[in-house]
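Mods, move this if it's the wrong board.
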Amino acid sequence: ATPALGSVAVLIMAITMLVALPVAVMRYHRIATKRKATVWVSLLTYFLVFLGMDFLFYGDIQNTLRAIAPSSPVLAAAIVVMALDDGQTTISHRRLGEWSSLAVVVTVMSVLLIWLTQPEWQVLGRSVTDITGVNGRLAMFVGNPLPFAGALLVLGFVSLLGWHDRSFASCLFGTVAAILALVTVVFWAQSRGATLAAIPLIGLTVWYLRPSRDALVKVSLALAMGGIALMGIAAFGDVLPMAIARLVDGLAVLAGDAPEVDGSTWYRLAMYRAGLAAWWDSPIFGYGISQRFMAAQPYLPPEFIGQFSHLHNTFITHAVAGGVIGLMLVFALFVTPFATNRAVQ
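Not the wrong board. Structure tokens:
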């Protein structure tokens, strides 16, 4: 649900967490495992250290809680997992891949339905057509094309899980879902970050699936045909030139062109440089999670206008928020899935 619904899915997760929390506490000794302990040590250390450091720096617990709130869905998911009994709720990779495939297909079909019907139903003063961005850069109900594209891209590749245990029809369904997700992200949401991230993911997918030469050719043809079909729709006549132009403009700014060429890329470069400069002045402890953007403001160029909640890069944001300690914490989160796999071998 997350790619299509965004914060609504987070609300569902929060409600589920409130149900799961007392269950996790009451049944802890019976359902605890090494994998769950690994997850909890990683997550609780992350949250408690950032909470503690920021509170010690500024003494404002409400401001600290507001600052760390965007990371709370990860903790909510961990609480839900903690309440599950592994003996009764085991889910296979195949099942996860098939459900992810269904989610991608339903999301994309919903997008096409909205585009075809152009509904004018009002939600908070805006029509569904405008909110979803079907006539421009697709964002669905997330409100921003970037997180929508990132979530849909991940779900598209997860659709291939359990490949070697799936039937031909199931593999075909997963392939269609992955292609739909990739084409939608590249040509409709036009997220450059997600598009670039797809390149190594495609390489990893080929390595994981180990397809035959014939299968690889067929998938490549299907991907090409999917892109051609999408571009063939009359309303999408300018999609390919727009996607290419966005990518070229972003590269031009990286090469040193004026910010007017692509303000989005220039803003990010400015924040990256300012964040690294701020980190250099407080490399060990950082400035606290509530100051992760404001600490970098003195280092921003005069023409930088606007204020954000973060620095648009996970590593730089955590470096400013917690210094070397913050970087160690976020790296610990990233390796947690590998540690949980190791715990059961």
